[in-house]
Amino acid sequence: MLQLSNEEIVKGIRQRNKSVFEAVFKQYAPTMYNIAVRYVKQEEDANDMVQDVFLNLWKSAENLDERAPINHYLARATVNTCLNRIKKEQRKDVYVKEQVFVAGTGAAENNHALLEHKELEARYRSALDKLPDQCRRVFELSRLKGLSPAEIAEQLNISINTVYAHLTTALKKLRVVLINKP
Question: Which residue intervals of 41-106 are DSSP H helices?
Fold first, then answer.
């Protein structure tokens, strides 16, 4: 196996050097596979995750940063790929359950579920309105507009730690209100 420095690896991948790419695959794929198995729990899915990461590495080779260790990049990319797949599967499960629920319930059951949903929505809105202004603004930018903490910090001209503190406060308060019915 080739013994290359991180800079040589990045340079080789950027130049689309197949022998460097294969050497990196042989060296890091087993570790990435172990990471993926911990997240997705299935060997076939874990293999797919590793393949996806290496495919993305090949496609975006020119964006690699030679200062960042390749093993850290690959580990983080594997975790992110797994988390994205898990989120996608969860969204799909929710959609399927909603479709089964709608298809399998009668009008009375639908009305009851709709009423419960409206009640929960009202409690959520009420709890949101009771949050301090800045805290509510941060929460809404994060959860409703989908902005990252860094984007929120920049837009509101506050530190990223303040953003995290506001999000933590908002989530705690909302959780209390939504879990504990009045």
Answer: 43-59, 70-104
